[in-house]
Amino acid sequence: MSTGTADAGRAGTAAGGPGGGRGGASGAEPAAGLRDAGALRRLAVATLDGNWEHDHTVPSRTLYPHQWSWDSAFSAIGWAHVRPDRSWRELASLFRAQWVDGRVPHIVFNPALRVGSYFPGPEFWDSASADGAPTAATSGLIQPPVHAPAALLAYRRCPSERARAALRRLYPRLVAQQRYLATRRDVGGGGLACVVHPWESGLDNSPAWDASMAAVPADAAVMRAYRRHDTAHADAAHRPTDLDYARYVAIVAAYRARRYRDDDLAARHPFLVECPLVNAALGAAEHALARIAPLVGADPGPHRERAARITEALVRRLYDPATGTFRPRDLRADRLVPARTVLGLAPLILPDLPAPQVSALVAEACSPRFGLAARMERPLPSHDRTAPDFEPLRYWRGPSWMNVNWLVRRGLLTHGRPDLAAGLRDSMIELVARAGCHEYFHPDTGAGLGSPAFGWTAALLLDVLADDSAG
To answer: If 122 and its partner were Cys, which of 17, 109, 243, 374 is the partner (CB 3.0–4.6 Å)?
Structure first.
């Protein structure tokens, strides 16, 4: 369901989302019009340093002061350019909180923070009641498995024997993460992992989830039992409504009531969707593991085979030939969702994506819906610009995000489109040069939105500044 009308969304900004999104402030921000690459690099390093928390990088220092899963992967990529040891500490700290079944939780909570300082906090998730949960307090959800590619990039950016040893320790945990998603989460039986909550996609309140969320029964009165912290940092009119939050809470409550078990998801769980981004990341991770395996004395063959199966399943189950893009599949309704969002471009990161799908996705990205070009006047949005529910100021319903731009850029380089990748890179740098390391950006004006001094924006800026060619 929509969080409001398009006109209302154009009237304000937001700080951070409830599960995958973040908000807050730390570090330094530039004056408008910063252009010097050295100054941009110093800004990015200062932002990461300001967000470093003894063994990991927090997304921001106020609203989201804990550790997030895919944020840590992106931070590791950035740290590899300036303090490589932090890349490995970042990933190691996250995977110490891995569950026995292999899941990597989307939040690892900092025990030093007071109870009630964040919602939904550790007392809400109650991970200690679940079988196989770690000692650390965590959520019970996952996020896109971008960690194996991040580890490979961190190693390639700064190879050393110490880095190889860290990679060797991490490898079995990455394999376990993949196994969990490929087995416990293949609810549809078609070879793809499903997400059990919109927060697992990383694109928390994307229009992609509206139809599936509308079918989740919830009462807004549920939220009276909780205190929302997001509305203390942002205008409530530009945040998800209490009914939206009630649905988010209802989905988690259903999962938590079964102690986060996956054995009966098909029979009982209210939200089951196969996401193009999560599954593209799953396939890209197998390709990365195939390259990591020889470095750590393992066999790359099984990873290559699994990668091929995931790509085939992704094309078979989520590609829509009528529109030339990938769409999430709602397993409850057994249909592809109608929204055309940036999620549909994510399979470009797969090196074995067939040529017809590559061509179709490039055409989709270059269409007026997204506006990709060798010289871009506006950054890549998170939702179709031409859609009636496009909202340029509302979280994940239109704004431009550095991490999604970064993923699409890597896909373009993988498939031989350095011209378009260069346009996207220039656009990413321009966003930060004009507005600073914000959480996200207005997709028309480039104005910084959400949290300033945001971790993954700084980390991925470092990566694109250092990378002029092949990515």
So the answer is: 109
